[in-house]
Amino acid sequence: MSLRKNKNCIIYGGGGFIGSHLAEELINNGYKVTIFDKLNFSKVNILHLGKKIKIIEGDFNNEIDIKNSLNGIDFVFHLVSSTLPGNSNANPIYDVESNLVSSLRLFDECVNQKIKKIIFVSSGGTVYGIPKSVPVNENHPRNPIVSYAVIKNTIEDYLYLFKHNTGLNYVSFRLSNPYGERQNPYSNQGAIAVFLNKVVRNEEIEIWGDGNVIRDFIYIKDAVDALVKSISLDTSKDIYNLGSGKGYSLNKILNEIKLISGKKPKVNYKEARKIDVPKNILDIKLISKDLKWQPKTNLREGLLKSYEYYKKINVEC
């Protein structure tokens, strides 16, 4: 524990679902944690952390805010995204300005302040586009079909450029579909959270297509375990898939929810969307080998924990 007392981490976008679980895991491993998020952001996800964390409210697009926030920091976690896969194509220019340009400013300042490592959360579900084969490994061609993924790809490429030109150390994780407690059930992203909350509230679930699209879902605590491990390990690669390595259709998820809840979901199947990849399963051999990491939580166990959470918050409301 004493070896880590001076290792300070900052999580950009730390007030959200992933960030709050990441902050917990960092604290549990002896790191000091600063959370940077937008002005007046909701702190409901991190209230339980109390004085264990430092909070900075600022503008990710503001150079001065970024410069000041990095003072005394050793490790940077970049979780910020102002868009989602489903809406990013509507305004690609905004996507570039708010996500790509801001990330480049962050990397410049990380070089200036001699940050030890940047951990970037990319998108394993979108950067590959429509896979030619599954499971998808890190060498699979990247052919994204949404602006969100184009930006994630480009940020990865710039990180490589910064490392080549300046020595900036980084690791990028192509995260699949995380789920678990504290995920926003009213967002356009996060099917499991939406499904579970709808079932708890006896509301209709809308699905684009016939429900046979297949996704790689990973329980959030397994995901952040890998992110934290990457701080202290010198890895052979800079980019890793981070998922369960297993694929489940949305219909399979609905059936599992039925089994754990005892309630039959009400489903309205709608016309499929062009932005939805038919099948995506990540190959996790590389991360398992280099980080000595494996997901510990099976689907039913993760769904049950999540279901109990959504039952609780609906009772409290």
Summarize the structure.
The protein is α/β, with parallel strands linked by helices and 317 residues long. It contains nine helices and 13 strands.
> What's the CATH class label of the largest domain?
Alpha Beta
Strand runs, count = 13
CATH superfamily of the largest domain: NAD(P)-binding Rossmann-like Domain
User: Considering DSSP H and I runs of 4 or more, what fraction of the residues is helical?
Assistant: 25-40%
Outline the secondary-structure elements:
Blueprint: E1 8-12, H1 17-28, E2 32-37, E3 53-57, H2 63-69, E4 75-78, H3 92-112, E5 117-123, H4 147-166, E6 170-175, E7 177-179, H5 191-200, E8 204-208, E9 214-215, E10 217-219, H6 220-232, E11 239-242, E12 248-249, H7 250-261, E13 266-270, H8 285-290, H9 299-316
Parallel strand pairs: 1-2, 1-4, 2-3, 4-5, 5-6, 6-11, 7-10, 8-13
Antiparallel strand pairs: 9-12
Key attributes of the depicted protein:
317 residues, alpha/beta, Rossmann fold, UDP-galactose 4-epimerase, domain 1, 2 domains, 7-stranded parallel beta sheet, 13 strands, globular
